[in-house]
Amino acid sequence: MKSQTETISLRKSLLKSKMKQTIADRELYLIMIPFILYYVFFVYRPMGGLQIAFKDYSVYRGINGSPWVGLKHFIAFFNSPYLYRLFRNTIIISGYGLLFGFPAPIILALLLNEVKNKGFKSVVQTCSYLPYFISAVVIAGIVTSFLAPTNGLINIIIEKFGGEKVYFLSKAEWFRTIYTTMGIWTGVGYSSIVYLAALSGIDMQLYEACTIDGGGKWKQVWHITLPGIMPTIITIFIISIGNILNVGYETIILLYQPATYETADVINSYVYRMGIENADYSLSTAVGMMNSVIGFILVMLANTISNKVNDTGLW
Amino acid sequence: MSAKAYIRKQADAKFKLLSSLCQITAKRVRDFINFCAAGFGGGMELIMKRTKGEAIFNVFNISILSVLAFLTIYPFIYVLAASLSEAKYINLGAVWFFPKGFTWDAYLKVLEREGLWTAYANSFFYMIVGTLVNLIVTISGAYPLSKKRLVGRRLFNLLVVFTMWFSAGMIPLYLTFRDYNLLNTRTSIIIGFACSAYCFILLRTYFSAIPEAMEEAAKIDGAGDLYVLFKIFLPLSFPSLATIGLFYAVSRWNGYLWSMILLTDDSKIPLQVVLKKLVVDMSGRMENIGFGREETNYSEETVMYATMVFSIIPMLVLYPFIQKYFVKGVMLGSVKG
Q: Which residue from A119, A208, B178, B304 could staple onto B278, CB 3.0 to 4.6 Å apart?
């Protein structure tokens, strides 16, 4: 057992060596200045602006001049008729994304993995991740024009088959399908890369052993391939759950219209509309903050679970 | 691996960039020929397969993947064809793969359009200057924080990772820009989005993988940290720098939301915002587009398509590089999220 004085002098010398190291590394701290400046001014300082969620912020009075109103905006939001709609849409759209959009890259990776011809595999890959690198505006433009009521390709095909043209983007019941399909089209190729990487990490000998034991394709997939990429699948799945509230509003606001708010409006698109379009700053900040906090808790939970389940996490 | 071998490996990577563009194009051509051959020759190969079940599966597999490949690029083929077609054929729904009534009119209209060149130039400006700033800020953080000896390292890292999961939100950020008097300035776009935590982590990981022996050797010869960074680490990190550089370049070029929120002058907005206006105007006029101008060869629609083509071209140019660095970086990075 160390005596009091020994512990104190140990701490002192630790502090001293830390200070020495800091001075020796002064150039490193200098190098870090742009980085620190960015984070201080554009990431952390804005967090101070979150206080307007608890105030009746008015542009004229500024942040300090605006009065505190406590939880008024949060309560107003919880009592608003939109609350249920926003949560429901956010979770349903995320849910569809998970239900359809989560397996799709995995299946794609599995299929690609079975292709023997390198040229074919390469061409399919190149095509499949192209949409990911195209801007949301272009994608929204393509969706809008393909679904156009009079000349849109989809409607023309429908007419050729004898059906009636539909103005899809104005119909609330179509929005989620459109959005989910668009999401899959854009992301399936890119998301499959992670799984392909995981697949390439599976030991070839396992496959050979299975073949020797008389296992056919299905046995191989079930007993070797899937278990081999299961850690990756689980990790990504848990992260996706953690992100359930973060539906990509940038694309939604390009595609929605008042007629489709009933199914299209999600929490973040509401925050955008209230804040930027209606200048209802305090309300928008309150809702946004609530979303961020819940999202943060979900992600922390997700990571803890992932750690327990997998021995892997994000740090 | 020894320091020398490590340097040589990195130098090889650099020189490969020059020849890589030619190689990549040639490879793509070869791949495409293989792709076609797969259809014919693959058929023969399949019949020789071990079991009938496997052969059927392969046919099934190749069909699905071909359909997928087709579906992912077809919209772009359509956009290209439509941009080169006479408007009346679009209205009739006659355009599928090739332009009908070939005309450059839509492009001419785009080029004439008020403010388009400005927007295009703005996009390039934001992409190039923005990416440079991004790289500087990211390197400035990743390098020191990759050194285990740095006091306060864990704290800094924690503060950065925290921002990945929690951010101030749209309005507080907007108000911050306003407080700094940066509304409607190009500066706001350039420095306000200077670092992505994801890229920071990628680069920091890469830096920390470089053998400490290299730094020690330089330090013995009297080099300072700045010298070590510029003369040793940066040249060796080219693949990682290329990866995050491309990531930033793509984000900058494609980004529209904050440019739309922060910039009100038409002289400052980038191409994507112009395109957004076209798209939104289009969907606003959807009901009437059937009765578009009959006298001209172009229409609002074809002009929109032509603008889209303009905005996609730089991405297509970067695409081979994106494949080479970015995609590999994602595969090897094992940093998710």
A: B304
Q: For residues B91 and B299, is the Cβ–Cβ distance under 8 A?
A: yes
pTM of the model: 0.84
Sorted by sequence, the CB contacts under 8 Å of residue A293 that are 6+ apart come out as: B166
pLDDT bracket for residue B332 (50, 70, 90)? low
**Could you tell me if B93 and B175 lie in one domain?**
no
> Minimal Cα distance from B62: which residue of A?
A115
- B305 & B326 share domain: yes
Do residues B323 and B195 share a domain? no
A-chain CB neighbours of B248 within 8 Å are none
The length of chain A in residues reads 315
Report ipTM for this prediction: 0.87
Nearest of B328, B277, B114, B195 to residue A32 by alpha carbon: B195
Q: Token pair for residue B146?
A: 């990759």
Q: Is residue B316 part of a domain?
A: yes
Q: Which residues contact A195 (CB under 8 A, 6 or more apart)?
A: A105, A106, A108, A109, A110, A229, A232, A233
Q: Which of A35, A285, A289 sits opposite B137 (nearest CB)?
A: A35
B-contacting residues of A 115-174, CB under 8 Å? 115-120, 122-124, 126-131, 133-138, 140-142, 144-146, 148-151, 153, 156, 167, 169
Q: What is the per-residue pLDDT across B220-240, written as a single tens digit (0 to 9) for each? A: 888 888 889 998 999 999 888
Question: Does A141 sit within 8 Å of B275, measured CB to CB?
Answer: yes
Q: What is the reported pLDDT for B22? A: 66
Do B252 and B193 share a structural domain? Answer: yes
Q: Each residue of A85-103: pLDDT tens digit?
A: 999 999 999 999 999 999 9
**B110 alpha carbon, distance to own chain's centre:** 24
- Here the tokens at position B334 are 């094992």
Task: Please identify which residue in the block is written with the tokens 């729904």.
Answer: B93
Domain that holds residue B230: 116-262
Distance CA B211, CA B17 (A): 24
Distance CA B215, CA A26 (A): 16
Torsion from C-alpha of B60, B66, B68, B70, nearest 10 degrees: -150
| CA–CA distance, B233 with B230 (Å, rounded to integer) | 6
Q: What is the CATH number of the domain that holds B181?
A: 1.10.3720.10
CA nearest to A250, candidates B337, B256, B284, B197: B256
**CA of residue B216 relative to chain centroid, distance:** 37
Q: Closest by alpha carbon to B326, among B233, B249, B226, B235?
A: B249
Note whether B127 and B248 are same-domain residues.
yes
Give me the residue from B171, B175, B336 closest to A236, CB to CB. Answer: B336
How far is residue B35's CA from residue A118's CA, in Å, rounded to a whole number? 9
Query: Which element (helix H / strand E) includes A19?
Result: helix A4-24
Let me know: does B151 contact A21? Beta carbons within 8 Å.
yes
Whether B122 is in a domain gets the answer yes
Q: What is residue A175's three-state secondary structure?
A: helix
Query: A50 and B172 in contact by Cβ < 8 A?
Result: yes
Give the pLDDT band (50/70/90) at residue A270.
Answer: very high
Please state which CATH number belongs to domain A83-310.
1.10.3720.10
Q: Which among B254, B260, B299 is positioned nearest to B87, based on CA atoms? A: B299
